[in-house]
């Protein structure tokens, strides 16, 4: 009878020993094991992502010729509008460069763009993360900002050889300074508690009392540029609620974020140019 009870409790004893061993293990060993496990599973993550891309390709092949012609026509219109925007951007950059030369001002180019495909999404109650298919081999550093067409995606939290982990702005662990569009006073932004299948939201604090926001009259929240991580003017979301905080001196509120954050397939990492300049140059074979 005692041996039978011991056999029943053996799995729990083994689990308890493993948990205790992990808790007393030095932090350096934990970090090494975590990084090693991530590097070992990275090829599997990349292969699964590429298989999904192949499935999407064959799914598109199943569409009729009429649907493909209509999609091509719509894409041609979008490409035409983008070509006009690119020409205007090129002209504006040339004008800025000319004025910088005349006024002897330093160049404002601070980042290079590194486009990356999303390999995996890791959403839970504790964090909101995505894994991208580029990492240390492409010069991506820890802390680099990530953006997409709708504004800020998040920042790079971990970097490995072929992959990197980006913590989304929906994560409660992300805090940064923002400003209401047209205002220069900084506001504290933090990711909110975002359950599954719910619209992504964030929280703002230390908001001036004269700022009024509601669902019918929202305020656009953008990055302030303070802290040196995110360039100023990038969209964070829209403030849809503002009420008096607990201290009575500031307001706090709710920020509605872009719903596409949970279904992104491609993002852009802003790699600081000083990181590229400090990186060692690899000799060609």
Could you explain the architecture of this structure?
This protein has helices at 2-24, 27-61, 65-103, 273-278, and strands spanning 111-123, 128-132, 145-148, 151-159, 164-168, 175-180, 187-191, 201-207, 219-223, 235-244, 251-256, 266-272. The model is unreliable at 281-285 (pLDDT under 50). It starts with a helix and ends in a 7-residue tail after the last helix. The chain has two domains: 2-61, no CATH class; 113-277, Rod shape-determining protein MreC, domain 1 (Thrombin, subunit H). A hairpin with a 6-residue loop joins strand 6 and strand 7. The protein is of the alpha+beta class and 285 residues long. The protein has four helices and twelve strands. The strands form two sheets. It has a six-stranded antiparallel β-barrel with strand order 1-2-5-4-3-12.
Descriptive key words:
2 domains, Thrombin, subunit H, 6-stranded antiparallel β-barrel
Count of individual beta strands: 12
Within CATH, the superfamily of the largest domain carries the name Rod shape-determining protein MreC, domain 1
Beginning-to-end CA distance, first to last residue: 69 Å
Arrangement of strands in the largest sheet? 1-2-5-4-3-12
The amount of helix comes to 25-40%
How many domains in all? 2
């Amino acid at each position: 009878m005692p041996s039978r009870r011991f056999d029943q409790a053996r799995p729990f004893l083994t689990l308890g020993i493993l948990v205790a061993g992990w808790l007393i293990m030095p932090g350096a060993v934990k970090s090494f094991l975590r990084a090693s496990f991530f590097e070992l599973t990275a090829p599997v993550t990349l292969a699964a992502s590429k298989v999904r891309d192949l499935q999407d390709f064959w799914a598109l092949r199943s569409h009729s010729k009429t649907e493909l012609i209509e999609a091509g026509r719509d894409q041609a219109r979008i490409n035409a509008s983008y070509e006009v925007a690119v020409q205007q951007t090129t002209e504006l950059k040339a004008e800025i460069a000319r004025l910088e030369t005349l006024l002897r001002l330093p160049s404002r180019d601070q980042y290079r763009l590194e486009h990356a495909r999303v390999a995996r999404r890791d959403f839970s109650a504790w964090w909101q993360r995505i894994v991208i298919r580029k990492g240390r081999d492409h010069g991506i550093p820890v802390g680099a900002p990530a953006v997409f067409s709708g504004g800020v995606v998040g920042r790079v939290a971990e970097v490995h050889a072929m992959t990197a982990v980006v913590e989304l702005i929906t994560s409660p662990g992300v805090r940064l300074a923002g400003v209401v569009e047209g205002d220069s006073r900084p506001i504290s932004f933090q990711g909110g508690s975002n359950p599954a299948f719910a619209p992504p939201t964030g929280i703002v604090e230390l908001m001036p009392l004269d700022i009024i926001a509601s669902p019918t009259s929202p305020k656009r929240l953008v990055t302030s540029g303070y802290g040196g991580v995110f360039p100023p003017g990038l969209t964070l979301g829209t403030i849809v609620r503002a009420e008096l905080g607990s201290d009575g001196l500031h307001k706090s509120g709710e920020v509605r974020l872009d719903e596409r954050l949970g279904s992104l397939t491609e993002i852009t990492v802003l790699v600081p140019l000083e990181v590229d300049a400090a990186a060692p140059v690899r000799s060609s074979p």
